[in-house]
Amino acid sequence: MRSKKCVVKKNAKEYKTVFDTNVIISAIAFGGAPRKVLNRAITGKISNFISEDIIDEVKEVLQRPKFRYDKLKIKAIGYELELISEYINPKRIADA
User: Fold this and answer.
1) What does the alpha-carbon distance between residue 79 and residue 12 come to, in Å, rounded to a whole number?
2) CA nearest to 23, candidates 34, 39, 33, 15
3) What's the pTM?
4) Are 69 and 62 in contact (CB under 8 A)?
5) Nearest Cα to Cα of residue 42 among 66, 21, 17
6) Candidate from 4-8, 12-16, 57-61, 92-96 with smallest mean pLDDT
7) What is the pLDDT of residues 14-46, one digit of tens each?
8) DSSP 10
9) 49 strand-pairing partners
10) Is the model's pLDDT at 51 over the cut of 80?
11) Domain ranges, ordered by start, for the chain
12) Sign (positive/negative) of CA torsion 79, 51, 61, 33?
């Protein structure tokens, strides 16, 4: 019988993520679990990967009437996402 205390801990950097637009918007605007996972990327506890398409989509969504972020704040958010993420350039985008 295995002990419940037997837990294999991985190096935090082994966890790799790609936050989609919905997770990023939820983290920024509403908090909760999406904000907690975003904070893990901010503090370097997990690795996040991002593409130009995701950043562009986040910026576009934040301009919508529901959020109405000003251009300067949107630019800052895009820059911060680039700082906490590793930039990737997908060779192919799958059809939805």
Assistant:
1) 24
2) 34
3) 0.78
4) yes
5) 17
6) 4-8
7) 789 999 999 999 999 999 999 999 999 999 999
8) P
9) 86
10) yes
11) 14-87
12) negative
